[in-house]
């Protein structure tokens, strides 16, 4: 009976002044987990998001940072925030802390899970938090955690009910009891507020793409070409903390986030001017992307600025696709491909792993290949290869290490970008030999097309 409570719909305290604004940058509705120390907030958070993120510990107050993640339940998505220690402490402490941040966080959220202890009952800290929640005017679900024992729970039940947030919802985070029902309740409450939880794009699956290049290279034209030709659905996402607009573009069954598309739309003269004199926006877009599409104006060839952008993308471990645009303006273009590839090998030798695409944005030529190359680079960034293959390739490596250097064995330790750790007898590994290792991996293990390869070394006697 206890772990299968009546449906609470309509029984929660409805309060005034609710807002539908969300807590962080995207438009997912936000649910906050609030409660005093040690009631099991982190445990509940981890169970609801389905993976471990915040640290669960017996010690009071070990988890301190606000943690945010998405809860995905079948096709419904919402955002969950573990407020950790924010709402804990003595009465004055809470109010001291709360003045700026806490109240704002409460008011900007859509629903609160007020977690109390269903085993040991309430203390004055719970009443302080309850007062604050009432004042904030946000919708609250009272969650009685640690309610695995009916006997204990029935003892504390009257006290919990008297808090004035309606029927408590008993769960056991630790034993995963009643959690699906809790999620169902959260979903129905959010849907009552008018949220369409099914439409939320799954941000974790987004392929983040930055289209960069010199002014006038044809970046906006390329973006528009992809969107039109692929009959893509576009959803703008305004950043709240930065002055940027990103766009989610759905192509086939994949979602792409085109980073900072404000720069790809029509710009005012002054914005245009600022962009020409400053590279800040480009750097920012590169840092926030997975794959960088470097657009080169074929009529001008590869410039110093293009080299710099490519270098930046490579150093940041991003996937890279190189585009020669305005291909229609090149005379006898079909006979010139080799010239352009030579130019690429000479001037962009440090990103020679990038796929090269020839496009004519105004004629809508090359879009399929461009999308394919973006996918290839993205896949390469995330690929893992077996340790056995790496070492087999190293054994067969033709280039010998410089005198005195011994390369024992290696393994892939990370993705985004693929990163390999090699054990050596001394840490001075010349750049030329590092390049030989990369080349061996690409030729014999996996080409990692479009992705840089990072190397790390560790000394071993
Ligand atoms: N019996 C029982 N114990 C639980 C349950 N959920 C969490 N706990 C335990 O309660 C203790 C506190 O859990 P946390 O998740 O760290 O609690 P918290 O509210 O995040 O604590 P702070 O980090 O202090 O804010 C841990 O020892 C958990 O194992 C539950 O459902 N039943
Ligand atoms: N012939 C030809 N012209 C193109 C092509 N792509 C773009 N253009 C033209 O080049 C000019 C610049 O294109 P945009 O797409 O605005 O270039 P951009 O890189 O976004 O430029 P900025 O906004 O200044 O950074 C426009 O006049 C386009 O019509 C192409 O493939 N072939």
TrEMBL record:
GO biological process: ribosome biogenesis
Summary of subunit composition and partner proteins: Associates with the 50S ribosomal subunit.
CDD domains noted in UniProt: EngA1, EngA2
Lineage, opening ranks: Bacteria, Thermotogati, Thermotogota, Thermotogae, Thermotogales
Binding site residues for GTP 1: 35-42, 82-86, 145-148
Designated name of the protein: GTPase Der
InterPro entries assigned to the protein according to its UniProt record, in alphabetical order: G_ENGA, GTP-bd, GTPase_Der, KH_dom-like, KH_dom-like_a/b, P-loop_NTPase, Small_GTP-bd
Pfam family, one: MMR_HSR1
Domain EngA-type G, first and last residues per copy: 29-194, 207-382
Family: Belongs to the TRAFAC class TrmE-Era-EngA-EngB-Septin-like GTPase superfamily. EngA (Der) GTPase family.
Assigned keywords, A-Z: GTP-binding, Hydrolase, Nucleotide-binding, Repeat, Ribosome biogenesis
Residues annotated as binding GTP 2: 213-220, 260-264, 325-328
Record's function text: GTPase that plays an essential role in the late steps of ribosome biogenesis.
UniProt-listed HAMAP family: GTPase_Der (MF_00195)
Region of interest (Disordered), ranges: 1-21
Species this chain originates from: Fervidobacterium islandicum
Nucleotide-binding among keywords: yes
Keyword GTP-binding: yes
